[in-house]
Write a structure and sequence with these properties.
The protein is α/β, with parallel strands linked by helices and about 240 residues long. Helix content is about 20%, strand content about 30%. Strands 8, 9, 10, 11, 12, 13, 14, 15, 16 and 17 form a ten-stranded mixed β-sheet that branches.
């Protein structure tokens, strides 16, 4: 179950997968796929199950089927490093090419992939400005302006409910700007209360949409870290 949000006047739909759909623009945005992060770690002796790319593309394919967007926007760090494209298993590389061929696909350059490989189709840009929104990988000059939608920070949040601590990736917004959760299976995360994220919102009362398996749960900034009686699903 997703949740409708208004960001700087634009009505969008946040999805538990970590995708963001803008219906009036027929645009699906995702951030920080970090394809082939597992194989990158393996090269340095940190062995992880080598299925992160397959899992990430499975979830992306499901989001594409669900929303049927005309355009797809990847907000940077789609490939974990400069050699990630060469390490993609052939079956996954072919699957990614079919996805890009079926949509108007835009790769936003990230700090991990400043030059996303051309072999997978789509176009590359530094950002996308459209109507009241501006999509980019990370805030320009360290400031998160009105209408800005970015990735990069891999936000996560933790809450206490029924005696258990729950930590999960999340969307972060104050209604004017939005930080996307990382979509990649091995992307990890940074707590939203860390100054690197919280500082971008200043004194604004941001809220988070915590992504569990099937739905999003809405919490205010003040609720984070406090015991809560239950998880309230976002509408």
């Amino acid at each position: 179950m997703g949740a409708s949000l208004t960001i700087n006047g634009a009505l969008v739909r946040a999805d538990p997968s970590g995708a963001l759909f803008w219906p009036s623009a027929s645009l699906l945005a995702i951030a920080d796929l970090h394809l082939e992060k597992g194989s990158s770690f393996a090269r340095s002796g940190q062995f992880l199950p080598p299925y992160d790319t397959s899992d990430t593309l499975d979830r992306l394919a499901a989001a594409l089927r669900r929303f049927q967007p005309r355009r797809v926007l990847c907000l940077g760090d789609s490939f974990h490093d400069g050699a990630a494209a060469a390490r993609l298993p052939p079956v996954e590389a072919d699957r990614l090419r079919r996805m890009t061929a079926a949509h108007d696909w835009l790769w936003v350059a990230g700090n991990h992939d400043p030059a996303p490989p051309a072999a997978f189709g789509g176009r590359v840009a530094a950002e996308l400005r459209e109507g009241p929104l501006c999509f980019r990988h990370e805030p320009a000059d360290g400031a998160l302006g009105p209408g800005e939608v970015c990735g990069h920070f891999h936000p996560k949040a933790g809450v206490s409910a029924r005696g258990h601590r729950i930590t999960a990736r999340c969307f972060v917004t104050d209604g004017s700007r939005l930080i996307m959760p990382a979509f990649g299976a091995y992307a990890g995360g940074l707590d939203v209360l860390d100054p690197a994220i919280a500082g971008l919102f200043g004194r604004a009362n941001f809220r988070v949409l915590l992504a569990t398996r099937e739905r999003l749960h809405l919490f205010s900034r003040a609720q984070l870290g406090r015991p809560l009686p239950r998880l309230a699903p976002a509408g």
